[in-house]
Amino acid sequence: MSNVSEKVFIKGNNAIVEAALDAGCRFYAGYPITPQNEIPEYMSKRMKEVGGVFLQAESELISINLVFGAAAAGARAMTTSSSPGISLMQEGISYMAGCELPGVIVNVMRGGPGLGNIAPSQSDYYQACKPGHGDYRLIVLAPSSLQEMYDFTFDAFDLADKYRNPVMVLTDGLLGQMMENIELKRDKKSEYLNKPKEWALTGAKGRHGQRILSLLMKPGALEKHNFDLKKKYDLITKNEKKFEEFHKNKDAEYLIVAFGTVARISKNIVKKYENIKLFRPITLWPFPYQELKEYAQNVKKVFVFEMNLGQMLDDVKIALEGTKKIEFYGRPGGGVPTSEELYKFIQEHI
Amino acid sequence: MEKQRLVYKRPKSLTDTIFSYCPGCGHSTVHKLIAEVVDELDIREKTIGVAPVGCAVFAYDFFDFDVTEAAHGRAPVVATAIKRVHPDKVVFSYQGDGDLASIGMAETIHTANRGENITIIFINNTNYGMTGGQLAPTTLIEQVTTTSPYGRDVKTYGYPIKMLELLAPLQGVKYLERVKVTDAPSVVKAKKAIKKAFINQITNIGFSMVEVVSSCPTNWRKDPVESNKMIDETISEYFKIGLIKDTQ
Fold it and tell me: Looking at this predicted complex, what is its ipTM?
């Protein structure tokens, strides 16, 4: 590994692999599913080069539980999948949240429900931001460029360790499959990589046995645990909200709210039309409610664009508290809107 | 006073917590055997256990070494990852029949087939103990459970699954033995088997699993003596006690 930044022309899925390895991830488990297969394929080659553990799991249940075990043992661990596979992982993600285990899950979204198709989609906003059983939160990062695929995957490991919480990088088949120039930050230091994990299971040398568990049966114990988790979630909300405000004119009258691929497409509109600006949530949880409300304060109308039937739309409504008229345009089932198509929608609804 | 010789003490690998298992249940005995083996092999400081979902879900209250929970059926996978991260540690999962043979069947078979160098202690009491005695894949033909009130009908549920015989042909599997803990001689044999399954891991022989046919007096609606008699006379006719596979 060199000690300098390195510019490469790389596929999105492969950028995730490089980011994970640069962040010190030495345990990966994954199961084949399109459109993320380049990740396990490339990882199987690269992980061997750095001397880590690569396991092709026999199901997504096995993938996520391997990550659970590796995290319990104190390792930086990652799994990747696409929408139907993430559904299978929800059980394990909930256990990780309950046990306060760090770990990174990359979701290269495809169309659904069911087997759906293998085209890019944003239809897992709900299952990422309003995840599985029990009262818990998953930190969700949404890249919209391949540089961000790399950067956010790297950061996800630090966030996971900092808060002892699973983190999801929520991307899609378009960003996973496309190629772009990015800068690999080989010299970037991961802040939490070498911080000792006193809670991890490493053998009870000179001490009593330690426990990793989410089962709390004594009266009041789970309620207390839930309130403790809430404190952590509040801290994450306070510290980690990320978003981008994109405009030529800050006082534009119309606002687009979009994330990931759709935000990227929407930027073409903002670059052309001064009267339209863009708010892009980067952390989908914690969602930047207050920041969006402030940015939307003087606009006449808010447009929410997604590659689904309106999932982030709910959070935009919560943020705006009924103060703004909202128009939604969504393409489900693998449909990817063009900027012309989105601009036409704006024109028709101004 | 004449100096007394200490012939028995509580294993160091057990905490002071009193077992919460029902009277006559085999779990307590097997827990004690594991703790004794861990002490005798002097591996308390490098043993990591994985507790299942089922009656032994509270195993971590009783063992004084590192223990994690695992989702229902996923214990061998969690054990696999821990062992891959820490190859120098001794990692075992402790699982019941609902956990290992039903919901965790895929996890069990693939872990065995990969030949993971871990130890599995499998408690077969022919029912789901924790949830109230429902039908398990190991429930005997015509056995009455809370979800088979007319007895297990093989036309509906097939035949009780013999996990060790199922795993035996897999080349990654190195040692399989079925034991019981119904009387002193069988407890001694059970301990020997458990010890061998741990030694196999320490000496890198590979995947080892011991099945303990264990009584569940509460759900069998029998007293402990009758329950042990049922194992000796009926259950061990179907689930044969003894060595199933040993590659050494």
Answer: 0.96
